[in-house]
Write a structure and sequence with these properties.
The complex is a heterodimer of chains A (about 110) and B (about 110).
Chain A (H helix, E strand, L loop, with lengths): L2 E5 L2 E5 L4 E8 L5 E7 L5 E7 L5 E3 L5 E5 L4 E6 L8 E8 L5 E3 L3 E6 L1
Parallel strand pairs in A: 2-11
Antiparallel strand pairs in A: 1-3, 3-8, 4-5, 4-9, 6-7, 7-8, 9-10, 9-11
Chain B lengths: L4 E3 L2 E4 L5 E6 L6 E7 L6 E7 L2 E5 L6 E5 L5 E5 L8 E8 L9 E2 L3 E5 L1
Parallel strand pairs in B: 2-11
Antiparallel strand pairs in B: 1-3, 3-8, 4-5, 4-9, 5-6, 7-8, 9-10, 9-11
Classes of the chains: A mainly beta (about 110), B mainly beta (about 110).
Amino acid sequence: AQSVTQLGSHVSVSEGALVLLRCNYSSSVPPYLFWYVQYPNQGLQLLLKYTTGATLVKGINGFEAEFKKSETSFHLTKPSAHMSDAAEYFCAVNTGFQKLVFGTGTRLLVSP
Amino acid sequence: DAGVTQSPTHLIKTRGQQVTLRCSPKSGHDTVSWYQQALGQGPQFIFQYYEEEERQRGNFPDRFSGHQFPNYSSELNVNALLLGDSALYLCASSLVTGAEETQYFGPGTRLLVL
């Protein structure tokens, strides 16, 4: 069965610092991987996704992620954090027929 | 272009009652999936509807049922509510074309069971 593991339930950074949120996947077939963001009391918004092709994927709000098959990872990064980036971030893998399996989430805290 | 909409936004029920949640997909989308997100957890897949049929189902009991209408909107029904059913229920819509397709989520319905 396909699954994702998000390391770190909470990540704290200062405004302007690098953001790194970790996600490792387990899949017996080439995975489709997604990062979603959830702001308080809201639904999920897609940040970016990897399907095939280029392994470095750029998303919205300056986020990007790199698919590394050898490390089974799909970590999310942003060079410079902004206060508005504070939210919950979910990594997900598609197990077929668009059924998403989510990680437990990482809460990003940004301090001034 | 309206995105995915859900109603109601909040709901309070008591144990043993039944609840119906509603979802209208993004314009042009034909597939609707439902997820349950307990507090502090990631969303869990409940089931998915396409062409008015349940196409696949997650590990949820039969108390959870659904329906899709000809206009692609969908309902989620939960019978015999338990305290553990308290959660945010998310609806997502997409095109059926492939697994790489993006699912667009609605704002959710927050259900509290007392």
